[in-house]
């Protein structure tokens, strides 16, 4: 408890409780507010969101080739705390697991149905475009956001010995202004909790939908969230090495096994050919896709897809980036950026290639169940895909289990990060943040996810992400500017 910044902790917890209570008491009004705010932000700030997302990708890639690339996080003699395997497993499990399981099938099919630029009758073009858009939303741009902010956290904490807080990334003028620093840190905590709650809500919805579809077990999302929150409390109480690390390795092992099985049971040759072709399409169209603003079309695709995903990455940035920084002691800047930016993106491309192309293969061959599933109940899309494969019940059972484990990993990682953001001291590579703080945030995460689901289901979850993600993206820009100045100073000294 000595390391707990009581002001940041108590104010953040209080505001979160107030927001949650207001939403719960005024469910209909809250749902309307979420929707109108999202439309307002996307209509007037969509162009800015796209510029910022592309800017982070340029910045991260640039750092690989600069004279700063060999600077080691923690100093010249620092050695990595975790192996490459454990490192990649933890950052991927915390940063993407639930999202890929939820959208791995739904995203490509949704693009196929909703993207306004599809050509009637040209299935080859449409399929390639659908997968390219999925890779845009889940690949390089998102991980560039994590990489940029994560490097800011890691360098400030391990090389400058500053606290694991967002205000520590913005220079002495912000740090010395106690009110401004505290306000920024509180915004970061609320953004973190909201972003994670969104994914937890998605995971709970998918578990509920899967249990109903596969086993005819009707359980609402709320009991599932309570159950997962309890498991998250146990994991976060064990700490980083005994809880999150082990669980992340289990996640990646099972997810990898599931990926291989789907590849073998599905249209294997079609999937392998499609992955190669889609990689070319994505690389060929990346500039066009990542700068498209719907300027000449009157559609809602950008609001529902690209802008939502980019702001979701922004909302998750303080959580995942700080967590990545916490586990990246001893890495060089080049090593860090390549590991955070390109390795997870490659995993995403393979995952989308296997699951997305398996679903598209069914559409191309006149099996429309998967299309109806995405339109009617997106939570069942993955399980509908399994219906055409052998051992469908077994695959569904394994999937439900791995969703739960990813769910728990996100919950406990998020609680750990929120606790670190509300702590006092600088980096302590050997220690964890206060237990009371970790437990409190784990509980509040579950409560917020449940309330947002009550307030409007998946739509409320998505709009909450947009509301908190947009302002935080602006803060991140200033953090990157300060990082660049600090790197220059490091080499000149």
Quick structural gist:
This protein has 493 residues and is mainly alpha-helical. The protein has helices at 6-25, 27-64, 84-114, 123-138, 140-159, 172-175, 178-215, 221-265, 268-290, 301-304, 306-326, 333-364, 369-376, 381-386, 392-421, 435-454, 457-492.
Could you explain the architecture of this structure?
This protein has 493 residues and is mostly helical. It has a single domain (6-492), classed as Amino acid/polyamine transporter I, CATH 1.20.1740. 80% of the residues lie in helices and 0% in strands. It has helices spanning 6-25, 27-64, 84-114, 123-138, 140-159, 172-175, 178-215, 221-265, 268-290, 301-304, 306-326, 333-364, 369-376, 381-386, 392-421, 435-454, 457-492. Helix 7 runs antiparallel to helix 15 (392-421), helix 7 (178-215) crosses helix 17 (457-492) and helix 8 crosses helix 16 (435-454). Residues 426-430 have low confidence and may be disordered.
Keywords:
493 residues, mainly alpha, Amino acid/polyamine transporter I, 17 helices, 0% strand, globular
Q: Give helix and strand order, one letter per element, not per position.
A: HHHHHHHHHHHHHHHHH
Query: If helices are DSSP runs of H or I spanning 4 or more residues, what is the number of helices?
Result: 17
Query: Helicity range of the residues?
Result: over 70%
Unreliable stretches (pLDDT < 50, length at least 5) are 426-430
Biggest β-sheet description: none
Distance separating the two termini: 37 Å
Q: Please state roughly what percent of the residues sit in beta strands, choosing from under 5%, 5-15%, 15-25%, 25-35%, 35-45% or over 45%.
A: under 5%
CATH class: Mainly Alpha
Total beta-strand segments: 0
User: According to CATH, what is the topology?
Assistant: Amino acid/polyamine transporter I
- Average pLDDT confidence is 81
The CATH architecture comes to Up-down Bundle
Name the structural class: mainly alpha
Shape: globular
Radius of gyration: 21 Å
Task: Count structural domains.
Answer: 1
């Amino acid at each position: 408890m000595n390391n707990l910044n009581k002001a940041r902790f108590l104010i953040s917890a209080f505001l979160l409780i107030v927001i949650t209570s207001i939403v719960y008491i005024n469910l209909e009004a809250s749902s309307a507010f979420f929707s109108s705010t999202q439309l307002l932000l996307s209509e007037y700030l969509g162009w800015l969101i796209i510029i910022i997302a592309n800017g982070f990708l340029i910045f991260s890639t640039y750092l690989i080739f600069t004279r700063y690339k060999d600077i080691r996080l923690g100093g010249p003699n620092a050695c990595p705390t975790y192996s490459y395997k454990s490192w990649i497993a933890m950052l991927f499990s915390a940063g993407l697991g639930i999202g890929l399981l939820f959208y791995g099938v739904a995203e490509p099919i949704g693009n196929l149905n909703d993207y306004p630029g599809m050509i009637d009758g040209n299935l080859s073009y449409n399929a390639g475009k659908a997968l390219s858009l999925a890779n845009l939303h889940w690949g390089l741009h998102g991980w560039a956001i994590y990489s940029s902010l994560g490097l800011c956290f890691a360098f400030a904490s391990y090389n400058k010995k500053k606290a694991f807080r967002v205000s520590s990334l913005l220079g002495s003028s912000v740090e010395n202004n106690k009110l401004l620093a505290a306000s920024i840190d509180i915004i970061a905590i609320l953004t973190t909790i909201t972003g994670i709650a969104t994914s937890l809500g998605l995971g709970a919805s998918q578990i509920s939908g899967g249990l109903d579809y596969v086993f005819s077990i009707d359980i609402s999302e709320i009991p599932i969230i309570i159950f997962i929150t309890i498991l998250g409390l146990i994991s976060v109480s064990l700490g980083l090495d005994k809880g999150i690390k082990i669980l992340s390795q289990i996640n990646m092992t099972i997810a990898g096994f599931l990926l291989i099985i789907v590849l073998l049971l599905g249209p294997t040759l079609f999937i392998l050919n499609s992955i190669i072709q889609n990689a070319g399409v994505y690389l060929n169209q990346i500039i066009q896709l990542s700068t498209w603003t719907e300027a000449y079309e009157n559609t809602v695709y950008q609001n529902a897809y690209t802008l939502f995903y980019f702001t979701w990455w922004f909302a998750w940035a303080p959580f995942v980036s700080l967590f990545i920084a916490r586990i990246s002691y001893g890495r060089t800047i080049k090593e860090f950026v390549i590991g955070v930016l390109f390795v997870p993106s490659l995993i995403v491309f393979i995952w989308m290639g296997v699951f997305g192309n398996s679903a598209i293969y069914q559409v191309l061959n006149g099996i429309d169940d998967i299309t109806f599933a995405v339109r009617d109940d997106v939570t069942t899309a993955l399980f509908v895909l399994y219906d055409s494969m052998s051992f469908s019940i077994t695959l569904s059972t394994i999937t439900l289990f791995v969703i739960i484990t990813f769910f728990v990993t996100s919950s406990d990682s998020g609680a750990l990060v929120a606790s670190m953001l509300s702590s006092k001291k600088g980096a302590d590579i050997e220690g964890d943040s206060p237990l009371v703080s970790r437990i409190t945030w784990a509980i509040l995460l579950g409560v917020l996810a449940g309330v947002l689901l009550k307030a409007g289901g998946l739509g409320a979850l998505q709009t909450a992400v947009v509301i908190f993600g947009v302002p935080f993206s602006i803060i991140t820009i200033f953090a990157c500017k300060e990082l660049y100045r600090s790197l220059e100073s490091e080499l000149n000294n």
